Amino acid sequence: MTVSPHFNFKQGVLHAEGVPLTLLADEFGTPLYVYSRQALNDAWQSYADAAAGRNVLVCFGMKANSNLAVLNEFRKLGAGFDIVSGGELARVMAVGADPAKIVFSGVGKQAWEMRAALDAGVKCFNVESEPELERLAQVAAEMGKVAPVSLRVNPDVDAQTHPYISTGLKENKFGIAIQDAPAVYARASAMPSLKVVGLDCHIGSQITQVSPYLDALDKLLVLVRTLQSQGIAIEHLDLGGGIGIRYTDETLLSPSALLNQVYARLHQEQLSDLQIVLEPGRSLVGNAGVLLTRVEYLKHTEARNFAIVDAAMNDLLRPTLYDAWHDVEPVQQPAESAQAQTYDVVGPICESGDWLAKARTLALKQGDLLAIMSAGAYAFTMASQYNTRPRPAEVMVDGTAFHVVRPREALADLFASERTL
Ligand SMILES: *Cc1c(COP(=O)(O)O)cnc(C)c1O
Known about the structure:
Elements: E1 2-4, E2 7-10, E3 13-16, E4 19-20, H1 21-28, E5 32-36, H2 37-51, E6 56-61, H3 68-77, E7 80-83, H4 86-93, E8 102-104, H5 111-120, E9 124-127, H6 130-143, E10 147-154, E11 176-177, H7 181-190, E12 194-200, H8 211-229, E13 236-238, H9 255-268, E14 275-278, H10 282-285, E15 289-300, E16 305-309, H11 318-322, E17 328-330, E18 341-346, E19 355-362, E20 369-372, E21 393-398, E22 401-406, H12 411-414
Parallel strand pairs: 5-21, 6-7, 6-14, 7-8, 8-9, 9-10, 10-11, 10-12, 12-13, 13-14, 16-18
Antiparallel strand pairs: 1-2, 2-3, 3-4, 5-15, 15-16, 15-20, 17-20, 18-19, 21-22
Helix pairs in contact: 2-3, 2-9, 5-6, 8-9
Bound molecules: pyridoxal-5'-phosphate.
Function: Specifically catalyzes the decarboxylation of meso-diaminopimelate (meso-DAP) to L-lysine.
GO molecular function: diaminopimelate decarboxylase activity; pyridoxal phosphate binding
Protein name: Diaminopimelate decarboxylase
């Protein structure tokens, strides 16, 4: 049975590429994140194919999964990076990323973060407000540098996704209202310590249709023309991230479908010499990871059946935060005769919101190993130590080989830096 191209059942046991997940659970314990190196490569390849022969820079939205091993794979494949903090800058520089391919996004950049990015020499700051523009101009001037800027505009389009991951509507905190952009660009281009290089938007996440992108693009192209008439040249157009993945049965938008349509519009407008920047996060890593967890107890109450597992909301927050769906697969296929029941799969944390999956039909017994699928994006990066739980280990599978890319945190490490009075 095929679950995904890189996670498959062989002789009744779920494998990551050539490695049985039972083996990894025995070796490293649970909860455990497992990534497929081939899945990262294949996801990258679909962007590379779409970009071939075009002036496109793909910057991995690294907040989706910032493990150094993941970053290093993408660096070697030629990726740039979209960062949202000074911490992410330090992380990605630790694997030797090319700063000329780094774009710096985020609504709340602090002065130290701007200084670090200017020192590194990033490609561009995606500026989200006028006060941020003023601060950046001042920081750059103090350093005797010129900061490359792109304004993140809010095109006010509906990405038709979950409200928490929709970012391009006028009521969101993100970006500069598109109608205000010409005036802000005029201010930016008059500041000697700034250089206008681009125009940026990011309208949301887990987008499965091309129309929201094209709605945004049309508005951006009008703006590019307006700016040109003001004598402000735009070198690149950054369309953000947002392409969705298959969590269950979503129909997908491919990078090539998106770029083909984008380039059709650019040709029509005779703007195909613009560089296109994309900032995909989820679509590069989401289906490259699973979270392995073991059933600790089965609890049958009057209202519900609960499978209490050893992973929890601190390990995988998406269900709690976004009401997100992750498929749940028993790692060893149950016997034909096993009786399936409807279970809520929940963690041990003292919160009613601590659940991973609801109302799933599963044939379970205590000690069973489950794989929470599509857990490569916004999964480990959102993990916390709530309830003084060490964060899971992370393992990368490569064919029949596997590598620990982050060991499980030791209990003593969780409070090693704390001091009593
Ligand atoms: C989160 C984010 C991304 C990545 O989004 P995905 O939906 O994971 O592709 C890209 N750009 C910006 C500005 C972001 O905040």
